[in-house]
């Protein structure tokens, strides 16, 4: 019983020119059986910060609820939204709190920071942050995603081209992973708008 | 070999569960009702360890009643499902309950809904769901014949198809099933499907 591969997931985030894209697959499975094809893995923390959690679905849901709670408290106290770097540090701290009984998730965080500069990072299940300038991946399809993103990525893409690139990278990677797929969910975030799109991929 | 499954139709939700209480090779009884009425418009069909199943579902039922007493209005199905998930999630890393739940309910605003709640507290709103070895047969049968907004007659036909499939294809298939329905008029037992009945002997 591989606990990180129990539910199946694929998550990727990419940086563009003053924008970012974050994408995930839509499958919720229990080992070999598919339960649902519309599982939400990407959550909005606020208009400029998104988090996608891969790994065990129950911890994805618990962790998401805890993070939204913490951000709402922050908003009440500071009367502003959290910066993406700060939010990443918060997630890292919350994960490390459970160092000897961890949440079995690997988050991918993407946001627009000061001056609309895009920020992405990923971390392991105990909060070890990995910042990147180009793309970050997570989930059961992560190895395929690394390859696909490395091949397709180029710096300073505009929102439309970024959407095409991240979608192709996601769909081609999940097609090589039996535990993830059944469509895709992509958010492309620019300083002025958030565009949410559902991808139709191979439904198997 | 516990089989629980359910689906959502046009303004109603149906859940069916087998009714065998089994201990190793012995069948204690074959008319055990595993679908509990949570309140007037909610059903909870549970499968798993017998002690946990009864204790946990009764706990949820009493808390749902308590909310109604305290606040004067009943919980929505979504709220009850999230409460159940919260209890399972809290207990997960201390004293886990081995209970899988399908919660069906009817709300005036949201209509009929069905929630899939795993024993490790994965929550998802679904149109059709199933647990146990029977799920390998009932999910596929429902995938083939399910359409959104079916009438009660069509849904019962589909439930019967699933029961037939389970009876013919599952080794040690449970002989008896109970079918319960929830719609705007409330939650109630719809039918039993019995192929083996308890024989009462004359007292000596």
UniProtKB/TrEMBL annotation, chain A:
GO CC term (a single one): cytoplasm
Pfam families named in the record: Proteasome (PF00227)
Compartments where located: Cytoplasm; Nucleus
Keywords associated with the record: Cytoplasm, Nucleus, Proteasome
UniProt xrefs under InterPro entries: Ntn_hydrolases_N, Proteasome_beta_3, Proteasome_bsu_CS, Proteasome_sua/b, Proteasome_suB-type
SUPFAM superfamilies associated with the record: N-terminal nucleophile aminohydrolases (Ntn hydrolases)
GO biological process: proteasome-mediated ubiquitin-dependent protein catabolic process
Family label: Belongs to the peptidase T1B family.
Self-association state and partner proteins as the record states: Component of the 20S core complex of the 26S proteasome. The 26S proteasome is composed of a core protease (CP), known as the 20S proteasome, capped at one or both ends by the 19S regulatory particle (RP/PA700). The 20S proteasome core is composed of 28 subunits that are arranged in four stacked rings, resulting in a barrel-shaped structure. The two end rings are each formed by seven alpha subunits, and the two central rings are each formed by seven beta subunits. The catalytic chamber with the active sites is on the inside of the barrel.
Role this protein plays: Non-catalytic component of the proteasome, a multicatalytic proteinase complex which is characterized by its ability to cleave peptides with Arg, Phe, Tyr, Leu, and Glu adjacent to the leaving group at neutral or slightly basic pH. The proteasome has an ATP-dependent proteolytic activity. Component of the proteasome, a multicatalytic proteinase complex which is characterized by its ability to cleave peptides with Arg, Phe, Tyr, Leu, and Glu adjacent to the leaving group at neutral or slightly basic pH. The proteasome has an ATP-dependent proteolytic activity.
Full protein name: Proteasome subunit beta
Organism placement in taxonomy: Eukaryota, Viridiplantae, Streptophyta, Embryophyta, Tracheophyta
UniProtKB/TrEMBL annotation, chain B:
Keywords: Cytoplasm, Nucleus, Proteasome
SUPFAM superfamilies the record matches: N-terminal nucleophile aminohydrolases (Ntn hydrolases)
Transmembrane segments: none
Cytoplasm among keywords: yes
InterPro entries cross-referenced by the UniProt entry: Ntn_hydrolases_N (IPR029055), Proteasome_alpha (IPR050115), Proteasome_beta2 (IPR035206), Proteasome_bsu_CS (IPR016050), Proteasome_sua/b (IPR001353), Proteasome_suB-type (IPR023333)
Function: Non-catalytic component of the proteasome, a multicatalytic proteinase complex which is characterized by its ability to cleave peptides with Arg, Phe, Tyr, Leu, and Glu adjacent to the leaving group at neutral or slightly basic pH. The proteasome has an ATP-dependent proteolytic activity. Component of the proteasome, a multicatalytic proteinase complex which is characterized by its ability to cleave peptides with Arg, Phe, Tyr, Leu, and Glu adjacent to the leaving group at neutral or slightly basic pH. The proteasome has an ATP-dependent proteolytic activity.
Subunit structure: Component of the 20S core complex of the 26S proteasome. The 26S proteasome is composed of a core protease (CP), known as the 20S proteasome, capped at one or both ends by the 19S regulatory particle (RP/PA700). The 20S proteasome core is composed of 28 subunits that are arranged in four stacked rings, resulting in a barrel-shaped structure. The two end rings are each formed by seven alpha subunits, and the two central rings are each formed by seven beta subunits. The catalytic chamber with the active sites is on the inside of the barrel. Component of the proteasome complex.
Protein name in UniProt: Proteasome subunit beta
Lineage: Eukaryota, Viridiplantae, Streptophyta, Embryophyta, Tracheophyta
